[in-house]
Amino acid sequence: MRFVFTFCVFLFTFFSSFSQSNFQFKKNKSCISIPFKLINNLIFIPIDVNGEKLTFLLDTGVEKTILFSLDDKEQVQFFNLESIKLKGLGSNEAIDAYMSTKNKLEAKDFVDYDHEIYLVLDQEFNFSSQVGIPVNGIIGYHFFKNHLIEIDYQRRKVVVYNETNKKVFKKLEKGYKKEAISIEENKPYYVSNVTTEGNTHPSKLLVDTGNSDAIWLFLNKSKEIKLPQKHISDYLGRGFSGNVYGLRGRIENFNFGSTIFKNPITTFPDSTSIKSVNFVSNRLGSLGGEVFSRFSIFFDYPKQILYTKPNANVNLPFNFNMSGIEVQHDGLEWVKETTAENSKSSSSYAVRINESRVQDNLRIKFALKPVFTINSVRKDSPAELAGLRKDDRLIKIEGKSAHDLTIEKINELLKSEEGRTIELVIERNGKQFKFKFQLKSII
After folding, report:
1. Which of 224, 297, 360, 410 is deepest in the core (most CB within 10 A)?
2. How far is residue 262 CA from its own chain's centroid?
3. Are residues 11 and 139 in the same domain?
4. Residue 20 maps to which CATH number?
């Protein structure tokens, strides 16, 4: 599933729009390196909030810092709470939230002592289930606004540079393409030459690391943006205001950095899903993680400059989930694993927690393992035609126990190659069924 977190804020109470949030170096260092997890082209970094370790999506497409999942973090304290409403991508109504100030956020030695946070109360908004790891919130503009920030997708590190670091600028002058971006309403925008149906048009696009797709285009914003003749209707993901729907197809090309990307899969969200988004002047779409993950990127918000250098993935094809199913992480369960003495092989299966049994020559242990279910099935897709349904639980995929997989591995399989036969064992209403279908590229 994909996520985009652009949103509008409707306040029930007044507050100053001049937030004092500022990250700074806690110690006198030339740079701070922060490791991250990369899942579905999205970046997740560890940040301490008022002393509690949390995980954040690093998202250039949002201005405010948002927390939406604290079920396992009951000790986090927040200050100066005020009631507000949030509304963004999706077709539903605004959701209840709180604004909190005077919070301390720290990523290693990169710290802000007066950070403004928005707390989302809607427990149905469950981001963690879509990426397979606990995710507590989103951070964007305030992380980037005062420093040179590098995102190295191959080394999976975010590096924050002190302005006194002269070596990094020499590095950028040698091997990186330097381009202007505009920072508007505290978000970065890039102008790309986009070609659709034979027509090339300079297009202002949001630079959005919180979107896992390659490129989004808004059909209702310009007559120059043309819908490809070959396209499909699809579920695009989840925003703060509900599900997002639209179309997918392949356009001729667009450019980013020094690279022209040909035949990329392009997403066209419907007008209902984006009706509450506050658009800056002349914005025609977004660029996302499927593009950025092919580069090393430096963001310089103060100077409104972007530096890019292609990495080894720059020429990979733009693949698509050809199965028609979206899979979600649906919690954990205890699994009994048995390993034969003097053997490296093992087997595992789910059991009740209070079950115990002694077997000769076997080591038995219990472990918490992930559960995966089907979150949606695209109409007329190979999976739907084979008989798969929403809420089916995955038991085996290609002969492997679903317990031993991740969301990332499952998604890689479902977009691997056209014509590949996929075998699934699922559980439905307490019974197991086997399904088989072929991946089919329809765009």
Report:
1. 297
2. 23
3. yes
4. 2.40.70.10
Q: Tell whether 9 is covered by a domain.
A: yes
What is the side-by-side order of every strand in the sheet holding 31-35?
A: 31-35, 157-161, 148-152, 295-300, 305-310, 177-180
Q: Please tell me whether residues 128 and 189 are part of one structural domain.
A: no
| Tens digits of residue pLDDT in 222-249 | 888 999 999 998 888 766 656 788 899 9
Q: Which domain holds residue 40?
A: 2-146
Helices (H), 101-166: 128-131, 141-144
State the DSSP string of 112-123: EEEEEEEEE--T
CA–CA gap between residue 40 and residue 439 (Å, rounded): 19
Q: How many Cβ atoms are within 10 Å of 357's Cβ, its own excluded? A: 9
Enumerate residues 6+ apart whose C-beta is below 8 A from 97.
Answer: 83, 84, 85, 86, 118, 119, 120, 121
142 Cβ neighbours under 8 A, 6+ residues apart:
19, 21, 22, 23, 63, 65, 112, 115, 116
SS3 label, residue 219: helix
User: Both 273 and 351 in a single domain?
Assistant: no
Over the stretch 41-94, which tens digit does the pLDDT of each residue have?
999 999 999 999 999 999 999 999 999 877 665 577 887 888 877 765 555 567
Other CB atoms within a 10 A radius of the CB of residue 116 amount to 20
Judgement on whether residues 303 and 244 belong to the same structural domain of the protein: yes
Residues 284 and 352 occupy one common structural domain: no
153 within a domain of the structure (yes/no)? no
Query: The whole model's pTM is what?
Result: 0.84
Residue 201 exposure: Cα atoms within 13 Å on the Cβ side: 19
CA distance 331 to 128: 9
Identify which of 242, 233, 244, 286 has the alpha carbon closest to the alpha carbon of residue 264.
286
Distance of CA 205 to the CA centre of its chain: 18
Q: How far apart are CA 275 and CA 244, in angstroms?
A: 11
Q: How far apart are CA 32 and CA 69, in angstroms?
A: 27
Residue 9: CA atoms inside 13 Å, Cβ hemisphere, count?
Answer: 21
Tokens of 125: 């908004």
